[in-house]
Amino acid sequence: MAHKTVSAAQEILEKNEKYIAGGVFSLNRKIDPMRVFVRAKGAYVWDIEGKRYTDYHAAFAPYFLGHADDDVDQAVIDIVKDSASLFGAGTTPWEAELAELLVACVPTLEQVQVTNTGSEATALALRLARAVTGRDGVLLMQGGYNGWEDEVAFNLMDPPERQQPDSEGNLPLNPISAGIPASVNRNVHVVQFNDLEAAERQLAGGEIAAVMLEPILQNVGVVKPEPGYLAGLRRLCDEYGALLVFDEVKTGFRHALGGYQSLCGVTPDLSTFGKAVANGYPMGVIGGKKAYMQHFSHPDPSRRALIAGTYNGHPVTVAATLATLKKLKSREAEIYGHTDRLGRLMEEGLKELFAAQDYPTTVVRQGSAFVVYFMDHAPRDWLDIARHNDMERDVRYRKALLDEGVFHFPVATKQGSISFAHTEKDIAETLEITEKVLAEL
Ligand SMILES: Cc1ncc(COP(=O)(O)O)c(C=O)c1O
């Protein structure tokens, strides 16, 4: 008699559907088809069926040293064994060490505070900018992602028809979540990345407290700033009295120890970090000029910006961050040299493979971060991508790779991330699999 066999994965997914709202923790992790992952080490992740994937998703990018890095994990094991609990009062010997190290790594940081996530860091950056300037407005970029909180959950991957400016050149506001109060709309303004004129029109109104942006748009692939764009924003912020906030949650520590800001040479007023700063442990950082950071402890309570959090600076997270930064700093040339070299091999290999296809593609890369756009030029902004990228082929390509054991997030334009744990052999194998996939795409 035939009977249905239920796989371990199916059983878990069914239970998830029953007990978890939406079927998975953090709904942006829902992929089609769903997979159940159980283990990760270095450049690889394994699903419950025992299938191995070479990982370029890297959990949305934090694993710059690779999964389960021995040095980082050992620091965590040590601190747990030492019974370094959460004290919730006073300080610990490790807070100053971490703050000093962060300031030593990123030249534009004079002082820092920490959170548990990137979203908390960007929310606090906006609060601080408002406390400093006494203004309410924020200016964001279409196609940028700065976290899930109300005032930044706008205008990510909208279709072209929802990016049509009005007669004054303003983009419509497209929330990416229900439940955001309409009152928030008054303070949020959005322009296209790389459009200095649009940014100036908004800043000239005199109500913008902060221009907050990813200095490279890396939640829609790798969209680079045009020459002079970031410097132009710096000049405009100075002219109109707004703070320039670089959200380096994704670019920071991945492109350079000093953040992308150390490569582009533009100094923001405030910066936010997360992800690679702690190689997968939940750490967020906000930092910048002392004159602004001092508003967290302003003597006048009416001008003081609140920062609080039961778990901020948890010894386990601090230990993981210290270990990550010490490794990055002590082996800087080796680590960034290796990841950049692998990035170059990937870029060159992909370009060669795609050149033989009869549809347009463009490979864009910054260091260890790369993407294949299914369009004939490197995009200038999200509107350009929404108009020209072949989203359907893009997703088909990703799913075919996933089936063959190469893990790219199966949503169009999502960035690929190479880690220090990847090897030349991994890249060569990935390119071989890509060649096979392209033959059938
Ligand atoms: C640029 C950027 N800022 C902020 C965030 C939010 O960070 P978290 O998911 O840790 O809250 C992300 C997350 O993807 C991000 O890419």
List the helices and strands and how they pair.
Elements: H1 8-19, E1 37-41, E2 44-47, E3 52-55, H2 70-81, H3 93-105, E4 111-115, H4 118-133, E5 137-142, H5 182-185, E6 188-192, H6 196-204, E7 208-213, H7 229-240, E8 243-247, H8 260-264, E9 270-273, E10 284-288, H9 290-293, H10 315-330, H11 332-355, E11 362-366, E12 369-373, H12 382-388, H13 391-403, E13 406-407, E14 416-417, H14 424-440
Parallel strand pairs: 3-13, 5-6, 5-7, 7-8, 8-9
Antiparallel strand pairs: 1-2, 2-3, 4-10, 9-10, 11-12, 12-14
Helix pairs in contact: 2-10, 3-10, 6-7, 11-14
Bound molecules: pyridoxal-5'-phosphate.
Residues 60, 117-119, 122, 145-147, 214, 219, 247, 249-250, 274 line the site of pyridoxal-5'-phosphate (PLP).
What are the defining features of this structure?
14% strand, Aspartate Aminotransferase, domain 2, binds pyridoxal-5'-phosphate, 4-stranded mixed β-sheet, 441 residues, alpha/beta, 7-stranded mixed β-sheet
User: CATH topology of one domain, what is it called?
Assistant: Aspartate Aminotransferase, domain 2
Strand count, sense and barrel status of the largest sheet are: 7 strands, mixed
Q: What does the overall shape look like?
A: globular
Q: Supply the helix-strand structural class.
A: alpha/beta
Uncertain regions spanning at least 5 consecutive residues: none
Mean pLDDT value: 96
For the biggest β-sheet, the strand order reads: 4-10-9-8-7-5-6
**Approximately what portion of the residues adopt beta-strand conformation?**
5-15%
Give the % helix: 25-40%
Question: Could you walk me through the main structural features you see in this protein, from its secondary elements to its overall organization?
Answer:
By secondary structure, the protein is an alpha/beta fold. It has 14 helices and 14 strands. The strands form three sheets. It has a seven-stranded mixed beta sheet with strand order 4-10-9-8-7-5-6, with helices on both faces. Strands 1-2-3-13 form a four-stranded mixed beta sheet. Helix 8 links the parallel strand 8 (243-247) and strand 9. Helix 2 (70-81) runs antiparallel to helix 10 (315-330), helix 6 packs parallel to helix 7 (229-240) and helix 11 packs parallel to helix 14 (424-440). The two termini are 39 Å apart. The model has no long low-confidence stretch (mean pLDDT 96). Pyridoxal-5'-phosphate (PLP) binds next to helix 4.
